[in-house]
Amino acid sequence: VGLRPVARALDEPELGDVARDRRLGRAKATLAERRGQLLLGADRALVESRAGLAVARRSAHAHSLALALCHAALLHHLRRETADAGERATAALELAADQGLTFWVAYARVLRGRALVGTGENDTALALMAQGIAEYRALGSEVEVPLFAAFYAEGCLALERPSDGLRMVEGALDFVERQHVCCHEAELRRLRGELLARSGRND
After folding, report:
1. Does residue 166 contact residue 174 with C-beta atoms inside 8 Å?
2. Which helix (H) or strand (E) holds 51?
3. Axis crossing angle, helix 102-116 with helix 62-78, rounded to the nearest 10
4. What is the CA radius of gyration of the chain?
5. pLDDT tens-digit series, residues 61-71
């Protein structure tokens, strides 16, 4: 059901006015990303993500492109395509920093850090994620904190730093319980269990 209005909106013609066309381009970039999330199948989602990137690039709108690059990096991470995730996150970070898009700087920094886990730049990886999360929260943004905390915890597991991961996960679970943002709660609890087992704690 959710795909129908998205598909109709993506089929809307250009409006002929430059300003309005740019707004429509930005909307289409977001809608193409959303359609990829709604469609089943990692391969189809990748096709839609690439379509969203193409629309964002044509729109010449930095915010839309940063959004599309970050969402593409996130999709590549979920597909376990670390190199591609890192490439998209780096592009997003460079663009956002150049354009002064502080929200996307923070978002991309977390994604870039996650992509660096296991590459030999482990200290940099965790530092980037921690910095990005702190910057994101400093902006008053919280909705992605559980997701970012899960990324940080995955990194801590990979790098055998369970105590650091536990602190981040327990803070995120406190946020989940206070704000009832439950979409990543199951993953956070799974990661907490793994981190507890690695740390030797039995609580």
Report:
1. no
2. helix 42-59
3. 20
4. 18
5. 899 999 999 99
